[in-house]
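Continuing the series of single-chain predictions for the mutant panel. This is the parent chain; the variants come on the following pages.
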Amino acid sequence: MKDHEGAIERVGGNVIGATAAGRIDEDWSHEGGGGNAPLLALGVAIAATACFFLYKPAFYAGCISMLGVLLFVWALRAPLRRDMATRAVAMAFFMPVTAWMLPNIWLVYLVMLAWVPLFAGRLERVAGIYLFSLLLLPGLDMTFEFGGTRLFDFGVHDALAIGSALLVLRDPRRCRISGADDRRVSLLLVVLVFGLARETSFTHFMRTAINVALDYGLPYFILSRSLPVVEAMRSALRWLACAGAAIAPVLVFEVSQTWPIYNELYWRHNVPMLLIVKMRGAMLRAGGPFNEPTSMALVLAMCAFALWLLRDDFRTRARHALLFAVTFAGLSSPQSRNAWVGLGLAIALADIFVDRWSALLHKLVPTAAAITMVVFVASSSPDWSESLGLSGQGSDTAEYRRNLLQRGSEEFWKSPIIGYSSAQLESRLNDMRQGEGIIDYVNSYLWFGLVAGLPGLLVFVANLFSPLAMLWSRRWTLVEIDAYAPAAFVFGCVAMLGMTLVFTSFGLRPSLLAFGFFGFAAALRAACRTYWHEEEEKAEEHAQPVWPQLAAGLPGRPQDPLVR
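Parent structure:
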């Protein structure tokens, strides 16, 4: 019990943040990064001027994202700021600018293929820079065809993943993961392929298998293998929090101008995509680089949670609070209730994870007061009420979810073992089509049960539950090795996904990140295993018998004078 209390004290203080700050690279300028600031400023000025006259969306997206990152690095402690400032500013500005200025979508893919290797350079940075880059651009997926046959879909996120995976593969220091984790995640990938491609042609099956491997298999591989040390895990959280700071101002700008900026990127490159602009309470539901508000809000809640856990990485609590307020403003722009509830759940679980019950109770009072005030304001303002989903379109979506659960459950029990093919589901649930002409499966558990039956649903639930059980059982070891923030982050985010997927569909970047977090959890398990192995070796060294060595008169050992 005393060990646990000491661990809680270390979590509550500045020890972890200071330790990580001290162990990270002393100064990136030694690698040639710090001296590039004037050159970067010149490049940004030239590119921003060109974009202002040629591509206004690129100008606003790049400059606003860069301002968010500048605020983030301004708030960081000096050693951490030196490590990531130039990279983060350059990527936040040039990623959208490059996507708009290149004349061909295939050139965009080519640049994104080299993007992570160019900015990461080494294994410890791969996960963080991959996550950061993954959130800054839409997918822009196109279909590869040969002889009129569709082979597979490919986009910006696939190019980023392949470049990251190649960098991980060539590094022998990559993390060694338990085979049980790989087998469990592989089984879920098989379930997805089965559910999406059953009762179709061979070419459709192969296309689905490739797409699933690119979209879900690679993120798991990257995050499970590229986090060999705890400092790399904390760095990944910092990059994710930085991505939230870059995206949040863009979302606020979109709402203020009623302008979905990133939709224009699809038109710029003639990428076919059904783009729907959603409004609620006379305000735009901002989608940012996700082009969809619900998933955007959920991922930004994860970024805000990472920022919350890393408060000791920042120079003052005031700067950290300002940064969190900016991120929360962006999180609120998509007007998604799931994201607010998910963030609150994750923060509460971070305290429960290390038995910080008093800290949890201290948060409940201001949270209850804030909720009461918001509900009071909503009751006197129809626009606010609709924005919060308490009336109008928000209440209509809640009604649709209830009807979908009822109808889906009826169909599930008619075929609970093998479920239905996509074509069969479209026919059986035809009465659930929305005004957009689609059946929106806004309950991921129900969808898995319908397309893969009870066995597929159990595989999905096992992949959500196993990381939670593993992290909970090892939480004091993780605190002991200064991995509280990464462990609490993965624990909270997986729980957040488990809760929100009851109300949202399985797809887009939240599902991609789900597989990434499965990989993150596997890396945390490997870190525990390494720590235990080192402790066993130390115990064996201390347990070696001493007297036989003395009797033998080994060099460097004191001898008995009688023997002499």
